[in-house]
Specification:
Layout: H1 11-21, E1 26-31, H2 33-43, H3 50-54, E2 70-73, E3 79-82, E4 88-91, H4 93-114, H5 133-150, H6 156-169, E5 185-191, H7 197-208, E6 222-229, H8 236-250, E7 253-258, E8 271-275, H9 282-291, E9 297-301, H10 302-340, H11 342-354, H12 356-362, H13 371-375, E10 380-381, E11 386-387, H14 392-405, H15 409-425, H16 429-447, H17 480-505, H18 509-530, H19 533-554, H20 560-575, H21 582-602, H22 624-640, H23 644-650, H24 674-705
Parallel strand pairs: 1-4, 1-5, 5-6, 6-7
Antiparallel strand pairs: 2-3, 8-9, 10-11
Helix pairs in contact: 1-6, 1-18, 5-6, 5-9, 10-14, 14-15, 15-16, 16-17, 16-18, 17-18, 18-19, 19-20, 20-22, 22-23, 22-24, 23-24
Biased composition (Polar residues): 452-474, 697-706
Region (Disordered): 452-475, 687-706
Pfam families: TRAPPC-Trs85 (PF12739)
């Protein structure tokens, strides 16, 4: 038995994508027209903007500087070094808010036309879905078709499922109940040769005068400037003087980016290919496909590529991380510590008891005139479902989110658990649901965090492509009582409550789907990390069933690609479920290897007609048959889509239960059964491909002969 069987997306790769695409700093970018023109002339591409150019480089786990390290100090003054710290570049904050408001207005108009009576709770209409399920199915069908036409079946399924998971967790929607998509920094990009300080001042003033939501804390935003210049034009001292004037006159820090313009060879070996769909949402990908914008990559010269990576590395290390650390320390001292004190707890209890009547009244529908009297008892706005930006509840939530971004998972969990009680007392149900979700996430991230072989570097870095992503087990397996407390006291009740809130209270089914898929991948990580798949497998199965049910309820004909991917993940989960300890597993594998070596060394003659003993080392300790069942159901969906390369990939994962090498006389190879039908389809597809390739190969052979 192969210890890596069955094959599929490694859960730790999904964990890294979760940290990179969801729980990472969001940076909003606003570039001047001259800055965009500067980039277009440098790349010889009139269709690219500065944001599109800089966005891929935010993933410094992929586009890294040699030997880069990021130093992060937590609230206990413990410093850790990380090999990567990705950031997400997005549209400027006013543009993001304008898109959100336009979608909200459209949703309200549709709901108003659908029903004549206005809803009693007007706040529900302002909360939009995280993503469109039908759009996701459409995008996945397109991606699966592209992969089947271009790629081989080696990593086909892994790419499709990873794309599916990444698109679900990737979002730039601003919501009041979590701050992961609230920008940490606002970057203004200007051109040194054509923009002046007055132009920059106008950009900053217009930005600060924008009508931001009342829950957004603009005072915590780090303002920064990227100054683009051509090193071949003018002198460097003029650029440095301009940078100093920006700091002196506007009190804004800046970073210089030397990007030459003119004729640059982007077709030679020195050119670097950079993907432009890094961290893109479902809507952005569909728009790019519908407009047929050609290549999904940019050609960048090696010198510009190295320069931008170094400048962003400097920007993160010198500005982003220190800014977040400083804010966390300030919030911890001024807001969180007083709340943890005895006096703070006393006032919390007194608020709960002495404001009982007002709280109960606020939970029921009331006219707008009563909102002012309610705000005296609580800072939560029940009409629009948000806490004011100056409230301690909003600040503490932001403190916990930033701590999670800085990978202080235990501190983040304790902070979430503390503020969740205040949300419950105020009946801020959407805040409660979101906090319960991140409580589970931070707990599982802390349980699956592992140390690198280098004592100075921590994990959470993406391994290079093609490298094994299996993580070594470095911690002892907790006892059953710890497992029972984590599962029955935290994960299961929290998950049930947040699903009820998202689906029944606010009709946000997509948020529940995202939470379930994140829990599944982190539980798979926990099963691998602590070799405890026997404890979590039924919970993973339950959550995947709920995801399938949610998708089936939304799509009329059912999502074939989504259903196939979830069936495949069920097969992967059961295939990795082994009722053995790590030591016993390794002993059995080593014993089998010794037996094989002895047979080879002695050179014994093996009778090919002799009935060999069955391998009973793992009999009854695996769930390969149930895993094969789910893989066959996934194969059925791909057969309907005529994606035979995907079928050929998945069929390799049932070889421990069935003979997949050839058609046999076994019952499962009958014409009217699924496996036999799949085998025959693969044979016909292979013959069809050979017939198409054959004439071309013959012509090529004749040309070579002449």
């Amino acid at each position: 038995m192969d210890i890596d069987y069955p094959s599929g997306l490694d859960p730790y790769a999904a964990r890294q994508h979760l940290l990179h695409h969801t729980y990472s700093p969001l940076i909003s970018v606003q570039a001047s027209h001259n800055a965009d023109l500067h980039i277009q002339r440098s790349l010889n591409n009139s269709n690219v903007s500065f944001l599109q150019f800089v966005k891929p480089y935010g993933n410094n786990a992929r586009y890294s500087v040699p030997g880069q390290t990021f130093k992060i100090t937590n609230t206990q003054l413990i410093t850790k070094l990380y090999p990567s710290f990705p950031i997400r570049f997005e549209l400027s904050l006013p543009e993001l808010l304008s898109i959100t408001r336009a979608n909200s207005s459209q949703s309200q108009s549709q709901s108003a036309s659908a029903s004549s009576a206005k809803s009693s709770n007007a706040s529900d209409s302002t909360l939009l879905p995280l993503f469109s399920i039908s759009s996701l199915e459409l995008l996945l069908k397109h991606r699966a078709k592209e992969k089947s036409e271009v790629d081989t079946a080696g990593d086909l399924d892994e790419d499709i499922y990873l794309n599916f998971f990444t698109k679900i967790i990737t979002s730039n929607k601003l919501v009041p109940f979590e701050t992961f998509n609230h920008p940490i920094s606002q970057v203004f990009a200007i051109d040194f040769h054509n923009d002046t300080i007055d132009d920059l001042r106008k950009l900053i003033v217009d930005f600060r005068n924008f009508n931001f939501p009342k829950f957004f804390q603009i005072d915590d935003l780090l303002i920064h400037v990227f100054i683009l210049y051509d090193p071949n034009v003018g002198e460097s001292k003029d650029v440095i003087e301009f940078q100093n004037n920006v700091k002196k006159l506007l009190s804004v820090s800046s970073t210089l980016m030397a990007i030459p313009q003119g004729q640059i060879d982007l077709e030679g070996e020195s050119a670097v290919s950079v993907t432009i769909n890094e961290n893109s949402t479902i809507e952005e990908d569909l728009q790019r496909i519908s407009l047929s914008q050609g290549s999904e990559s940019l050609k960048v010269s090696h010198s510009i590529d190295l320069m931008i990576k170094k400048r962003l590395y400097e920007y993160i290390n010198k500005f982003i991380i220190p800014h977040m650390e400083k804010k966390i320390r300030v919030w911890d001292d001024s807001v969180l510590s007083p709340k943890k004190s005895i006096t703070g707890r006393f006032f919390s209890v007194s608020k709960l008891f002495f404001n009982n009547n007002s709280n109960s009244n606020k939970s029921s529908p009331e006219p707008q005139s009563s909102s002012s009297s309610n705000s005296a008892a609580s800072s939560f706005n029940y009409q629009e479902n948000y806490y004011h930006k100056s409230s301690p509840e909003q600040t503490i939530r932001k403190l916990a989110d930033w701590s999670l971004i800085l990978k202080d998972f235990k501190y983040a969990y304790s902070t979430y658990d503390l503020i969740k009680k205040d949300y419950t007392n105020d009946k801020a149900w959407v805040y409660v649901a979101s906090t319960q979700e991140i409580c589970i996430v931070s707990l599982l991230l802390a349980q699956t965090q592992q140390s690198n072989q280098n004592p100075n570097l921590q994990e959470d870095s993406t391994p290079p492509p093609g490298a094994s992503q299996q993580q070594p087990i470095t911690s002892a397996v907790p006892d059953r009582n710890t497992f029972r407390k984590i599962r029955h006291d935290i994960i299961e009740p929290y998950c049930d409550n947040l699903l009820y809130t998202f689906k029944s209270r606010f009709n946000l089914r997509s948020y529940g789907i995202k939470a379930l898929l994140v829990f599944v991948e982190l539980l798979l990580c926990l099963s691998m990390h602590q070799n405890s798949s026997w404890w979590w497998n039924d919970l993973i199965e339950k959550y995947l069933f709920k995801c399938i049910d949610d998708f089936e309820r939304h799509l009329v004909n059912g999502g074939q690609v989504i259903r196939a991917l979830l069936f495949e993940r069920l097969g992967y989960s059961f295939g990795k479920c082994v009722y053995l300890g790590q030591i016993e597993t390794m002993r059995l594998v080593e014993r089998r290897q010794r037996e094989v070596k002895v047979e080879v060394e002695e050179g014994m003659y093996m009778n090919p007609h002799k009935i060999r003993n069955r391998d009973v080392h793992f009999s009854g300790l695996t769930k390969y048959k149930k895993s094969s069942l789910w893989y066959l159901l996934s194969i059925r969906e791909w057969l309907e889509l005529k994606n035979y390369k995907q079928v050929g990939y998945l069929i390799q994962n049932i070889q421990c239960s069935f003979n997949i090498k050839e058609l046999t006389n076994q019952w499962y190879d009958r014409n009217d059964l699924l496996l036999g039908f799949a085998k025959r389809c693969l044979i016909e597809a292979k013959e069809s491909d050979e017939s198409k390739v054959g004439p071309d190969q013959n012509d090529q052979t004749q040309l070579e002969g002449t």
